[in-house]
Task: structure prediction
Amino acid sequence: MDAAPVPRLQLSGITKRFPAVVANDGIDLTVMAGEIHAVLGENGAGKSTLVKIVYGVVRPDAGTIRWNGEGVTIDTPAKARALGIGMVFQQFSLFETLTVGENIALALDNSRGGRELDDRIRETSARYGLALDPYRHVHTLSVGERQRVEIVRCLLQSPELLIMDEPTSVLTPAAIGKLFVTLRRLADEGCSILYISHKLDEIRTLCDRATVLRAGKVTGHCDPRRQTNVELARLMIGHDLPHPQHRTASTRGDGLLEVRNLSLAAEDPFGTDLAGIDLSVGGGEIVGIAGVSGNGQKELAAALSGERLADTAGTIVVNGVPAGRLDAAARRALGLCYVPEERDGHGAVPEMSLAENALLTAYGQQLVTGQGLIRKRAVRAFAEATIARFDVKTPGPDATARSLSGGNLQKFIVGREILQGPRVMVAAQPTWGVDIGASAEIRQALIDLRDAGVAVLLVSEELEELFEICDKVAVMAQGRLSPVKSVAETNAAQLGLLMGGSFIAPDGVPAALAPREP
Amino acid sequence: MIEHAITLFALTLAAGTVLVFAALGELVTEKAGVLNLGVEGMMLVGAVAAFIVADQTGHAWLGALAGTLAGAALSLIFAVLTLSLLANQVAAGLALSLFGIGLSAFTGLSHVGHVIDPIAPLALPGLSDLPVIGRLLFAHSPFVYLSLLLFALVQWFLFGTRAGLVLRAIGESPQSAHAIGHKVIAVRYGAVTFGGACAGLGGAYMALAYAPMWTEGMTAGRGWIALALVVFANWKPWRVLAGAYLFGAVTLVQFQAQAMGVDVPSQFLAMLPYAATIIVLALISRDAVAIRRNAPASLGRAFHADD
Result:
């Protein structure tokens, strides 16, 4: 017989077709025992579909799965768990109103929680340095803690294969470091890890082998530690990345967007209160807001766009006009354009055509007559101009927003705002869930906007992105904003500390608000 | 004086029990994330089925069983429409109510005015005859005890068993529950059917013990109150119980006032229990955080595994 070790998991010829797209096309993948194996690819490359097939959530149309050398059919997650496969989901599959213990009990077959399980949770979480209190309700946990719940939940099933789907997208740099230590320890104990990501640096730090996917097909197997980012990116997107053109900042006209001591209680009971935010964005500069999501970014964006009104008019000044009590439409009239964090439902109405979506924010661009009637031809022309100028891949302005990929729809939304000739642009996570090609184009568009003298505020979780295009950067933590620093004067490690809230003085007053020395 | 208070207490329980059945059933349905607005229809169909069977066979308890089954059967129509065929739950539920109202009126037509042997209040030799205590505790309709048992059962099931935990999880996030391998549709079928059976039983209680008779539309909107009760009770069984008895108490006030000849239009008095229940419950359940913690987050939304 063959002396070579039997692979823990071997996929061959896995194919899955969805109505509009072939998500997986003849994919082969082999994972050995104790190996950390990366599946690398852009959004929409088919990574998530592939791991859902392994976990039994999605059934493949063709192909075979061998588990420890034996052919298996994994048609339910329960079956996957019985085999020893655990999965940590990208969008956490936790139940907010239940406790940590209940959440874990739900994933274990035939357990209803109780003291015995609580003890096992404490023991396992302590062993891997993932401290957890089984009695806490999940909605009170930070994102990092939630991920711990997911991981501990998998570990309690003593898995032989752990699937991690984009696990770091919600973590601070420090938390990522901790996670990697845990994962390495697991791998040393013989657990295989299938690590899904599109972040090249992480994969090069963590993984032993990588399988690269593009448009549903395998484009390469490699050892990521021996590859450069450029080589990996080429495998992933098929061509070299466009590098953004960067000119030095030339601030013109100070304070096109001014925020003065903005405090606002959250509307959402699980939201974050804003406390004493001070910020100034001048024409011709990009100011970045870093931070782990859930620290008030959403609330700040809503307050700036006019979705929520501030308590006094003077708290927010747009283009010299106190705008704190103005609604979104009035602020738009002052030249403030806004790219919301959520594409569906905020940035665009999925069921409506691109032309109609263009009209929703660009109605001020001579698209409506004085009597309130729509100038249909002008609307189409505006949408067509957006599509052409920002290279949106779509059949035309009559296509529904829903039919576009995330990246293309985002390009359309950003383009629609830019074509309105804003003085101030607020962009919240504009490249979230967008493939790297489109991300690069969106960043370039923001830089062009800056060069044209617009004040740009960019809220982003990706430090790489912030360092790439911003002139200044500040960090949000617990609803407060750190002092703004020039990008040249700071680095990722410093920002990482700030994200943990290091700038907030123990008495709750952010350092930025503490009395300054004369 | 004490005699009078005891009577009022007993009547309050009797009037509230209809709502206890219907609302507890709907609570379980909603905890699984399904909004069934067909409670009124299911109650009426339960009532008419119970009455007809009792009338024909002479066995009132057989009628109660029939009413329960009829409510469950009607809710199954709703389950197939919304869970299997993904119809809109609000529209399907409203249709179910209208259908139930019409169906019960039609089938019950030849039984209007009939007299049956009602299910009488408990009469335990010795116990029921005890002074004060006997009438306070041991002389109510068997349905009252049944409804309290149901309350204990629902409370224990939802918060003390694994199956209840799974049901609550499904109501919170069917996608997550599906992802970790729970059978969302099957559990929701169970929850809807349970809700239907309870509504049917509530109707049966009206037709066999509380009223006892059959008239068209005899539940008089109690199904709708049960729905409101669940929401305002913040999906907590004990609050449902309290709300139901509040409704019962105000119903009595109304009768007392009419009997004493208070000079208020009777329509206004008839409206009182409904208005009072809603207002009181709305006032005590204004806490947004508590609502979010208890409300099933997926309520009313169809679930479809994206396979």
User: Anything to note?
Assistant: Residues 173-188 of chain A form the longest helix (16 residues). Confidence is low (pLDDT under 50) at residues 508-518 of chain A.
